[in-house]
């Protein structure tokens, strides 16, 4: 079981692999052939960035029955896909900035899946062999702009609306993930990935028949029920046991 991160170093951002409590610096992303350079950063000194730099972020809407119901939506007959721009990504500890002009910005705790190999028209059976690892994602969403616009590019795409991390875990002990969200320490969302309408293998196969997935691309698999609005001064945590805790403060944007 490997654990990967991306660190801020004196030489810029670097991917790294956990070694005990220290980080072994890699020459590139693990899914881009990165190997250990021999440099090592002690764990307590590491400053973690978002552990991915995807060419695209593919998200799935309404993939949990109870969440579709809480927003008054029908269940989709096929995966409902949308994109977030890579520019929305922030790492653990970085602020989520609430944009002026949005009346309600919600957290959405989600399982993130990082692709390890180029993937095109794969079957459901082979789909999971294209996965590099798993991480926590907060699909931050402007609920009022989502309803107003009809399509979701603006509502889902503001800078800082895609916290990811803290790490990517390859081959976790279980593929039945608990997806939790706490707002100021209070549990708001708690679901299981086994309750997804379209499970990860199905999603990868479906998406790979539409467009090519590249190594490092990020698939965000939908949120369980319990979404709620964020306010300046909040701290929002996405926790998936086995993958860590993704914690971000919330600030008023400008
Ligand atoms: Zn979502």
What are the main properties of this structure?
254 residues, SH3 type barrels, Fumarylacetoacetate hydrolase, domain 2, five-stranded mixed sheet, 5 helices, 12% helix, binds zinc ion
Largest sheet: 12 strands, mixed
CATH superfamily of the largest domain: Fumarylacetoacetase-like, C-terminal domain
Attached small molecules: zinc ion
Chain-averaged pLDDT: 96
Helicity, in percent? 10-25%
Provide a count of the helices: 5
Which structural class best describes the helix and strand composition?
Answer: mainly beta
Distance between the termini: 41 Å
Number of beta strands:
19
Could you state the order of secondary-structure elements as H and E?
A: EEEEEEHEEEEEHEEHHEEEHEEE
Our Rg estimate from Cα atoms comes to 17 Å
Kindly estimate the percentage of residues that lie in beta strands according to DSSP: 35-45%
Describe this structure in words.
This protein is mostly beta strands and 254 residues long. It is built from 5 helices and 19 strands. 45% of the residues are buried. Strands 1, 2, 3, 4, 5, 6, 7, 8, 11, 12, 14 and 17 form a 12-stranded mixed sheet that branches. A 5-stranded mixed sheet has the order 9-19-18-15-16, with no helix packed on it. The chain starts with a strand and ends with a strand. The protein has helices spanning 65-70, 124-127, 143-149, 153-157, 200-208, and strands at residues 3-9, 12-19, 22-26, 36-41, 47-49, 57-61, 80-84, 89-90, 96-98, 105-106, 109-115, 131-138, 141-142, 162-169, 178-183, 186-192, 218-220, 235-240, 244-252. It folds into 2 domains: 2-48, Roll (SH3 type barrels), CATH 2.30.30.370; 57-252, Fumarylacetoacetase-like, C-terminal domain (Fumarylacetoacetate hydrolase, domain 2). A hairpin with a 2-residue loop joins strand 15 and strand 16. It binds zinc ion (ZN). The site of zinc ion (ZN) has 6 residues, from loops.
